[in-house]
Amino acid sequence: MHADYQEKIPNNVGLADDRRLQRALESWQPRFRQWWAEMGPEMPTEDVYLRTAVNVGREGWAHFGHVPVGDYRWGIFLAEPRPDRRIAFGEHRGEPAWQKVPGEYRAELQRLVVIQGDTEPASVEQQRRLGFTAPSLYDLRNLFQVNVEEGRHLWAMVYLLHAHFGREGRAEAEELLRRNSGSEDSPRILGAFNEETPDWLSFFMFTYFTDRDGKYQLGTLKESGFDPLSRTCEFMLKEEAHHMFVGTTGIDRVVGRTARLMVEHDTDDAGPYGAIPFNVIQKYLNFHYSVSLDLFGGETSTNVANYFTAGIKGRWQEERRKDDHRLTDRGAHVDAVVDGEPTTVEVEALTALNTDLRNEYIADCESGVKRWNRILADSGLPHRLRLPHRGFNRFVGAFAKVNVAPDGEVLPDEEWEARKDAWLPTETDKAFVASLMRPVYEPGKIASWLEPPRNGINGKPFDYEYVHL
Amino acid sequence: MSDSTPPVSFQTRPELYRHWRIELDGEVARLVMLVDEHGGMRPGYDLKLNSYDLGVDIELYDAVQRLRFEHPEVRAVVITSGSDRVFCAGANIRMLAASGHPWKVNFCKFTNETRCGIEDATENSGQTYLAAVNGTASGGGYEIALACDRILLIDDRSAAVSLPEVPLLGVLPGTGGLTRVTDKRRVRRDRADVFATKAEGLKGRTAVEWGLVDEAIPRSRFEETVRERAREAAARSSRSGEGGVALPPLEPEITADRIAYRHVTAELDGDVVTITVHGPDGEVPPGIDADFWPLAMTRELDDLILWLRVNEPERGTWVIRTVGDVDAVLAYEESMTGDKDWLAGEIRHYYKRTLKRLDVTSRSLVALIEPGSCFAGPLLELALACDRQYLLEPAEVVVTDANLGAFPMANGLSRLASRFHADEAALRRIRDLRGRRLEAGEAEDAGLVTLALDDIDWEDEIRIILEERASLSPDALTGLEANLRFAGPETLETKIFGRLSAWQNWIFNRPGASGPDGALNRYGTGKRASFDRKRV
């Protein structure tokens, strides 16, 4: 790694002149490659048509070409600096943004970076076997694109740890590669990232709902008073948007196919015709939406309140909000279950920031549902998808104690047990979905259960050979 | 939190536990902590993340006691968490923030006594405690582990041990944490400094290297390794015996001015509580059961001390009396001497711990030795635990081996050795008086009483002494007594109850901790504490 740093590790952080960072990355990079070889995609490929970011400008961030996945050039990019950026919230509001880690917030910042970093490689691990059942080369390519970018997001967090958190930061960076999704001995930090992604419907749901949680978390870190974190996350959000696109259009295509077959065969059950039954789509949506809601944590959080006051993690679109950005004497309503019934209670706004973020997320998820319902409506079908009640199937926060049906009704345990199979994927549903997951690797061909995409990648047609096997 | 109503009872039993579970498996017992979030002793806080309040700790104390008395077969005890996310997050911060100063101090004192009791069980009962730290242990959670003989930490690259009090709360790890890290586990002071200011704590290998835990064990081998270590500890234990004694509920009669157990009564009158311990009746029975006088009396006295400390904070002086037959007391002592019986040993250590409770009680303690009293041997220790001893002629006292090392104080010395610290001659003289009934003059000459009085002076003298005491500053008296009671060397225990607690209690009183903008009150609001930057 002595030759040309810019060539090997595309970056805009002055790596070529930063000996400390070089030293750190020189020992980290081989470990990362080893991790990728062991825990990355299992499906062998010759090369894949991937987008590589070579700089942050309009031209640079989307540089396309066929590359062997193992040789992907993971780069380090921060969004362009904003001159004289000021901290936008908390008790340091108005002060210049920090370019170095303030000692008093070192522990908290490091924790935030580590947790964010921990989720990035996790999804790569969860999705490592999906290549074997890809419905088309186009989708296979998208999977790899998502995977390499999650890998790059790990790099981004590792860069922050290496550049700003000293020896401990380097140790934490190594730990990020040692924890593995689903590992018994050293699992990933957040539970949802220890579940395998078993099939492509789950993959699309995951990229729509769970990666969207990532988008909102990144959005709050983009507001951070710690400028390098803010700029890193701003650039990551750009890539995250692509993952959302894979999820959104993936579900579009699944819904489109199901709707088409339902109309063609005048049936409610498209299963026998090789598509995913409408009610199974709804169940997968219910599942992925509800577990993703859990990722936002409890209704109230003192840690997040502390992060806000300290200026290290803001609210979604903090700078566009019209309030005092300190929240020291405001109230907010959060979900609660009182006497077994869902309701809301008022708490100090500062402690309600998890709820604030979850609400933003829910509103965003609604837009996906509207979009898919438009496809159903255009097909002339009366069927509609719905987001379940926010208390449905929750294991974190106020709703964890009660059983809530998708329509919001609270159910006794026996009734929940009796009815939950109508709302969540059963083993039979999963087995059926799995039975549809047969790989299609011929250019221009696609599996039976989803529509081809409207457009290819980077202006290329659908039958382009996105992946050389 | 109101410090008055309702009164706190320290009695419980496993059927009533809400937060702990005792699992028995032959010679190994497991104490599993799974705190009921909504089971706080007072309203206003949720016991999240296996955090504890006094109610949780009362159960722990009860469990530790029962394992010692009811289970002679148990030779190793594993403390672990029933939660898969966290071992224990320590004392509940919202509870602490809402509590007045006396409540905080009493709470810490009791939890400290329970931790020391765990160490006592390991050392003296052949019940070795192991901490199976199966999730993050922070603050008081790690301090529970520190009280164990061995700390086994799960190594899943997430679980950590930490003492985050200083960086997060602006107070100290006051349940022995600082002391045990340096004095018990011999963590180097610079590392202890780093550790105690590092909110996130340390994990796995580093925690082992620094000596904060004994082993870091991968998740897949954790349970198995814990079982193995427990078996090894059990194999090393010399505990043997059978026939545990079930501890039935105590049923004191409590009225506004009187608390009466079978052998112990307390009369409440103004700022004075008069505690009377009744000696045994009749012959020593052949076997030991829960009614066995030394055990029953100790349980009652223990419960009374705890009750009065928390529920009667304004009664600043405790007068201690005994009533009964000196010979009967000595006969019981004789029956329990030597290593004949594991149960006799347990009772002796229990009485030792109860006397230690008295030693660290922040009340003025005055012994009244009157005719008809039975301050002999073990009961004389009650008088020697007091700040002053007054004898009314023709009362007598008897010194025995019980007073010369059987019931050491926290400083490792007997109460007589502390009383005559560095005066070997005086101590020798007393040793020679062993077994004899000492009258007023002899007792006074030997330095066993503050003053011997006749019946003409008695009533007035005692009245004036008590009234004068009541007029002095309670805080100054607490400080005075705590300093004078522990002459001689420092031990882990004296440092915890002296140095660590005193600093903690000072910090608790400072605005940086408990002022309206202090760290305890600001905790959980998302607002930052404001500190007076001047070093004092």
What does this structure look like?
- The complex is a heterodimer of chains A (469) and B (536).
- Chain A has helices at 5-8, 19-39, 106-126, 137-164, 166-178, 200-222, 227-264, 278-294, 302-310, 353-378, 413-419, 427-436; strands at 47-52, 63-67, 331-338, 341-348, 403-404, 410-411, 467-468.
- Chain A has 469 residues and is mainly alpha-helical.
- Chain A has a single domain, classed as Ribonucleotide Reductase, subunit A (Orthogonal Bundle).
- The longest helix of chain A has 38 residues, at 227-264.
- Chain A is globular.
- In chain A, 48% of the residues are buried.
- Chain B has 536 residues and is an alpha/beta fold.
- The longest helix of chain B has 24 residues, at 101-124.
- The model of chain B has no long low-confidence stretch (mean pLDDT 95).
- Chain B is 42% helix and 17% strand.
- The two termini of chain B are 29 Å apart.
- In chain B, strands 13-14-15-16-17-18-19-22 form an eight-stranded mixed beta sheet, with helices on both faces. In chain B, strands 1-2-4-7-9-12 form a six-stranded mixed beta sheet, with helices on both faces. Chain B has a four-stranded mixed beta sheet with strand order 5-8-10-11.
- In chain B, helix 4 (140-146) runs parallel beside helix 6.
- Chain B has two domains: 14-236, 2-enoyl-CoA Hydratase, Chain A, domain 1, CATH 3.90.226; 253-485, 2-enoyl-CoA Hydratase, Chain A, domain 1 (Alpha-Beta Complex), CATH 3.90.226.10.
- The chains are: A mainly alpha (469), B alpha/beta (536).
- The interface between A and B is medium-sized, with 26 and 17 residues.
CATH superfamily of the largest domain in chain B: 2-enoyl-CoA Hydratase, Chain A, domain 1
**What structural class is derived from the secondary structure elements of chain A?**
mainly alpha
* Level-1 CATH class name of chain A: Mainly Alpha
CATH superfamily of chain A: Ribonucleotide Reductase, subunit A
Strand portion of chain B, in percent?
15-25%
Largest sheet data of chain A? 3 strands, antiparallel
In which order are the strands of the major sheet of chain A placed?
2-1-7
Number of structural units classed as domains of chain A? 1
Q: What is the 3D form of chain B?
A: globular
Q: Which term fits the overall shape of chain A?
A: globular
CATH topology term of the largest domain in chain B: 2-enoyl-CoA Hydratase, Chain A, domain 1
Largest interface, and how many residues on either side? A-B, 26 and 17 residues
Task: Report on the biggest sheet of chain B.
Answer: 8 strands, mixed
Q: Kindly state the mean pLDDT of chain A as a whole number?
A: 92
Are there runs of chain A of 5+ residues with pLDDT below 50, and where?
A: none
Number of helices of chain B: 21
Give the end-to-end Cα distance of chain A, rounded to a whole number of Å. 28 Å
Number of domains of chain B: 2
